[in-house]
Design a protein that fits this description.
Layout lengths: L2 H13 L2 E10 L2 E12 L2 E7 L3 H8 L2 E6 L2 E9 L7 H10 L1 H7 L5 E17 L2 E8 L4 E6 L4
Antiparallel strand pairs: 1-2, 1-4, 2-3, 3-6, 4-5, 5-6, 6-7, 7-8
Helix pairs in contact: 3-4
């Protein structure tokens, strides 16, 4: 396995199976953000939402979105993946990570599942008091890890 795949696998493993993250979407030049319960299955991230929510409308108009948590920023493309209960893997992981949300929302008639495919990941890492920027360009399969010098 090459450096890119090794580093990406390490990042995803360290990231874990589920986190509460900020999802940013846009429509007609207006950006909005909100907290979401997000799970990772393989190299993709999944979340659910009601089809009457603004984020659903925004993602229907523009599949480009971003996820953010702590010092991690992920840009990617979303696609609707049916109803949450139709995806066994999602149900298993989401129930494990966010049982309350699974019980309250996953079976609702208007609930829809989205798959988020990351295209670019950036993370700030601090070693010995020095800042580094770690980048993954998933489309080009490029990895970089560089000290930030502010130049």
């Amino acid at each position: 396995m090459g450096t890119f795949q090794e580093k990406l696998s390490g990042f995803l493993s360290e990231f874990g199976r589920g986190r509460k993250m900020v999802l940013s979407t846009t429509e007609n030049g207006r950006v909005s953000s909100r907290m979401m319960s997000v799970v990772r299955i393989g190299g993709e991230f999944y979340f659910q939402t009601d089809l009457n929510m603004r984020k659903y409308r925004q993602l229907s108009a523009n599949q480009n979105a971003a996820l953010c948590i702590d010092n991690i920023q992920i840009e990617g493309r979303c696609s609707e993946a049916g109803r949450p209960l139709e995806n066994e893997d999602f149900c298993r992981v989401f129930r494990e990570c966010f049982k309350g949300s699974f019980d309250a929302y996953s079976a609702l008639e208007n609930e829809r599942l989205f798959a988020f495919r990351p295209l670019y990941i950036q993370r700030w890492v601090y070693e010995g008091g020095l800042p580094y920027i770690e980048r993954f360009d998933l489309e080009a399969q490029l990895y970089s890890y560089e000290e930030y010098k502010g130049e």
